[in-house]
User: Fold Molybdopterin molybdenumtransferase from Paenibacillus amylolyticus.
Amino acid sequence: MTTAKFHRTAVQVSEAQSRIAAQVSAGRIEHVPLADSHGRTLAVSIEAPHAYPFFRRSGMDGFAIQSADTAAATSDHQVWFRVIDEIPCGYTPEHTITPGTAARIMTGAQVPDGTDAVVMMEMTESKQEQGEHWIALKRQIQTGANITPIGLEVQVGQQLIEAGTVIGAGEQSVLATFGVAEVPVFERPKVAIFATGTELLEVHEPLQPGRIRNSNSYMLRSLVVEAGGEPVMYGAIADDVNTARAKLEEAIRDNDIVVTTGGVSVGDYDIMGELVLEEQMQLLFNKVTMRPGSVTTAAIYKDKLLFALSGNPGACFVGFNLFVRPTLRAMQADAHPYLEEWNVILEDGYAKVNNFTRFVRGRTIIRDGRVFAAPAASRVDESSVMITIKDSDCLIVIPPEKKGIAAGEQVKILKLPTGQAR
Ligand SMILES: Nc1nc2c(c(=O)[nH]1)N[C@H]1C(S)=C(S)[C@@H](COP(=O)(O)OP(=O)(O)OC[C@H]3O[C@@H](n4cnc5c(N)ncnc54)[C@H](O)[C@@H]3O)O[C@H]1N2
Ligand code: MOO
Ligand SMILES: [Mg+2]
Assistant:
């Protein structure tokens, strides 16, 4: 055991974040079928290869006419048109419309040349005479009525979606509309997850005295998915530095980053804390002025990032959200990789203070159009508490200089993602 393990230099959260950011660059690009692109991050900006709509489109079921023909139409004076064509969706018109003629047309069909208006079915009267179809109108029709012009939504060459956008329903429609069948996206970073702790049992194992089940690996797995990463589970290892070194070797070889949980404090068996001090490691930090998660550690090993998060579930959760999540987002070129900051009103007073910034797991409440945040548990917000993670949708930021914060005061929160895979 080295003395360096005890004497750590604490850095501010923002400093720790910049040290990590300096090591991160956007990952490789791959092409995925459109149907598989939900939640992925677009890697190349997409421009419109054609205008949209691509042809003059009817907005109604009715008749395409020349509006000038209706100049004399009034409730007392019908104007008659001979119907010379019928245009369902998906067909191109066969005839040019001339004065006194009209074409039956359906919603979404291409408007024929020669016309400048579509009149709704319901506004017309219809008759058959000697095998010919005629319609009459009793009112004037404006030029352009019910015709969607070419390029109303999008002009050719216009930027449609910027690189770095996360693909959702709206983006899927755009990509489909413009024929992007294979979408260029950033590869999901492969994230190795392993837990350290001789006390850890597999989820299926029965409880034993002094032991607990490994919950952090599964929590981290979910967080990785949510951040757009691909989790790779390496299970749990006993508190042995040689085992940890071997596991790390394997994990770093086959993945883009490695996240571990446990063993980063100063206990006799805190092996990750020791491992990151070894010569082959480039330590970025091993103490941060925050709680929970003050022992959060990051290092570079073989050009890849290693995050050694605390074993305490609350600290592990906060450490991931402040440091690992932004890394995974930045690796997918997200322009806003950090958690969103909101200013809200504190629901219940928060009395506990200490010399580090505290990130209290909390939940937001919307009342009378205002946003409040309440600590997720009224009793404890200890680093070791697991049960409140599921009740949190934000981290309430309690600055160290404050002597507690009273209910009704403004506080900053960091909004947590809402749980679905991005
Ligand atoms: N003398 C000191 N003791 C401690 C300090 C300190 O500065 N000086 N820091 C405290 C703080 S703060 C924290 S946080 C913890 C950090 O502990 P470690 O990161 O070293 O984690 P472990 O010792 O391995 O475990 C802590 C706790 O978490 C449980 N655990 C571990 N892994 C998992 C898992 N995968 N799933 C669920 N729970 C897990 C473990 O059983 C322990 O109860 O240290 C303080 N001590
Ligand atoms: O690392 Mo600890 O979580 O500050 O309580
Ligand atoms: Mg420990």
